[in-house]
Amino acid sequence: MPGVPLALSALLVVFLVLPVLALLLRGLNAQFLPTLLGPVVLDALRISLLTTSCTMVLTVLLGTPVAWLLARYDFPGKTALDTLLDLPIVLPPVVAGVGLLLAFGRSGLLGAPLELAGISVAFSPAAVVLAQLFVAAPFYLRTAKAGFMAVDRDVEDAARTDGADRWTVFRYITWPLASAFLLEGLVLTWARALGEFGATILFAGSLQGRTRTITLAIYSALESDLAPALVLSAVMVLVAFTVLAVVRRLGSLHTPR
């Protein structure tokens, strides 16, 4: 009976949409602008924008060569490396935070030598960036790799035949042709970094004005003043909707019609 699937579909739609509407209705109220301009919210927004910007820069600088190598070359252990690079996507964020502490904490594998050199990573803004990079960079790697694989090798070979070196080919041919994929991956990376919570609170803590990002500010506000939590939640909903719209638009640019 068509009525049963329709009723079940309507039930699922209501279930998915209702919490979002509740957040918007409670967050976008008369106190939205005053609360948004308050020190708690502004600090969280500032830290989140600063750290996610650093994360995106590091992702592009470090992730692009890796994605290009994975797309262009076969080498021993490639499958294992590809799997390991995807692991943070499915790894629970709390586990990621524990791993980062064991690696870069004061008694960690690299943290201890860094402490001897006077460099403390854990519970600092740098720890926020590293936590975001760990959980978010794989999204860029996946789409960037797909973008480089989608570039016609014959076009690159033709450019080399005409005398172009490898860097020139990458800069003027490979990068532009794969740019829609790269932008899509970067948007997904930024969105994942912006919403990161578990790894950040374990590895960087929740220090007001220092490491407390938007998600940590929401969690902290739930225990005291609900207004910042509602405003920041509404902001995150609007950001998420915008990100999805951008990703769908970028996806349509490299989808055959």
Report the total helices: 12
Taking the sheet with the most strands, its summary is:
none
CATH homologous superfamily designation of the domain at 32-89 and 139-196 and 213-253: MetI-like
Write down the oligomeric state: single chain
Based on CA atoms alone, the radius of gyration comes out at 22 Å
Cα end-to-end separation = 35 Å
Pfam families: BPD_transp_1
InterPro entries: MetI-like, MetI-like_sf, ModB_ABC, NifC_ABC_porter
Protein name: Molybdenum transport system permease
Domain ABC transmembrane type-1: 45-247
In short:
This protein has 257 residues and is an all-alpha fold.
Write the layout of secondary structure elements.
Layout (H helix, E strand, L loop, with lengths): L2 H25 L4 H5 L2 H34 L5 H13 L2 H12 L6 H6 L8 H26 L2 H9 L4 H29 L3 H6 L10 H8 L4 H28 L4
Helix pairs in contact: 1-12, 3-7, 3-9, 3-11, 4-7, 5-7, 7-9, 8-9, 9-12, 11-12
Describe the fold and architecture:
This protein is 78% helix and 0% strand. It contains 12 helices and no strands. The chain has a domain at 32-89 and 139-196 and 213-253: MetI-like fold, CATH 1.10.3720.10. The chain has 257 residues and is mainly α. Helix 1 (3-27) crosses helix 12, helix 3 (39-72) runs antiparallel to helix 9 and helix 9 packs antiparallel against helix 12 (226-253). Belongs to the binding-protein-dependent transport system permease family. CysTW subfamily.
